[in-house]
Amino acid sequence: CGQPVLNNRIVGGVEAPSGSWPWQVSLHTFTSGHFCGGSLINDQWVMTAAHCVQGTHHVKHQEGSNPNEVVRTVSRIISHPDYYFGPDNDIAILKLFTPVNFTSYISPVCLAASNSTFYSGVKSWVTGWGETGYYGELKRTPTYDQRICDYSEIAGDIISDNMICAGFREGGKGPCFGDSGGPLVSKQGDRWIQAGIVSFGIGCAKPFFPAVYARVSQYNNWINTNCV
């Protein structure tokens, strides 16, 4: 996992060459186009944000948007049992009707271990097909000190230990509409590790309001238990 063969935009981002992020998933309904992102975590399961799939029963997904993409129907949606349409526990996993075959363009990402820590300032990347002109595909975004990730004046005390904040204080780069559910990854050694799932924010890439991500390491056991 986490080793793209071909990896030698989001707001303020740049277009990623085909195969650079082979775990990137685009969620579609049968009647409309892209609505959320996701990440391939093994040959038959995709991880995304729970708010992306609430009330959704007919979902398909695809990895990439190029001649090497594949399309699969989702056969099962499992949202975290403690997700209640709020920002906390914003994670879901989707079982594909049939597995995918791994290629140079399609392969899974590694997941952050339960005991892993992502310190403030760690260079991370967020990918997706959301809006790019609001203020994406590929954007570098450093993780934020949790102590200064403060939404209290706008939304109360909503930042929990189940979340990671990432972004630039000056704004300008970060996920936007349509990027929800997509991966926040960082490189550790020769592997890419997914630390977060795009969850929410105030607008898109606004100064002093970093994007907030579900913290993958908090859900490692839940993911492993349910991906059967």
From TrEMBL:
This is Peptidase S1 domain-containing protein. Transmembrane segments: none annotated. GO terms for biological process: proteolysis. CDD domains: Tryp_SPc. It comes from Fundulus heteroclitus. It holds the Pfam family Trypsin. One of its GO terms (molecular function) is serine-type endopeptidase activity. Signal peptide: none annotated. InterPro entries: Peptidase_S1_PA, Peptidase_S1_PA_chymotrypsin, Peptidase_S1A, Trypsin_dom, TRYPSIN_HIS, TRYPSIN_SER.
